[in-house]
# Entry
Amino acid sequence: MRTSAFSLIFAKLFSASKVGSRACRFALCLGAVTVIAGTALASNVQGAAPANYIALKEELLRMRAEDQLARGEGAASPPHGTTKVDAANTARLKEIVAMYGWPTVSMVGSEAASAAWLLAQHADRDRAFQASVLVLMEKLLDSGEASRKNYAYLFDRINEPQHYGTQGTCLDSTRWVPRLIEDEANVDKRRAEAGLPPMSQYIEFASKMCGELPLAKPPKNSYPKPVQRDSSCLWCHLTYVSRYRPQAALRNW
# Structure
């Protein structure tokens, strides 16, 4: 029906142009063809995109669930299956980014967008990819298509010194300390801009969580060296636990 309507428009334009020059007729016809082709292309894209993004949203949420399952969901001992899961998730996330660009809030919703970030956060064996994700997210902050809080966590994850104080380690079951922070005197200002609580509250919270983490280090070479046996993503993990598994002690392995 759409093709018939455009054909009728095309015929009327061509008929109306008979009174003009050959150049005029050509211009009118070319304009009609451009409108028809452009509209048809837009229609195809608009028709395919929602279905693609729904599937993408579901896939990202499924990948996040696998990520969290590999991290124990409150298991008494640290799980050792993260290496394989993280490698598979990283490889697939790289394909997704190459195909769609960074999954934004308008594309897949805030939950799935955060799921994509969590997968990148745990792509520790591919720092170059994490850095590229950080660049993509930075461009989306002002429009609200990426979370400033998530950006802060990823920035700290791959930079030394860190800017927001999100990454650190448990010295024992009662003390969590952040890694080196650049311009520490102004860290709370930067944290507020990113939607994070003051550093003192974060340290207090993280220190309490240290008591729920096993103190034994994982087996040698089981985890990426930069994040061995620490609580570097403690706050982001708890966010998911409090929302989806309130009784589970989610841990950063």
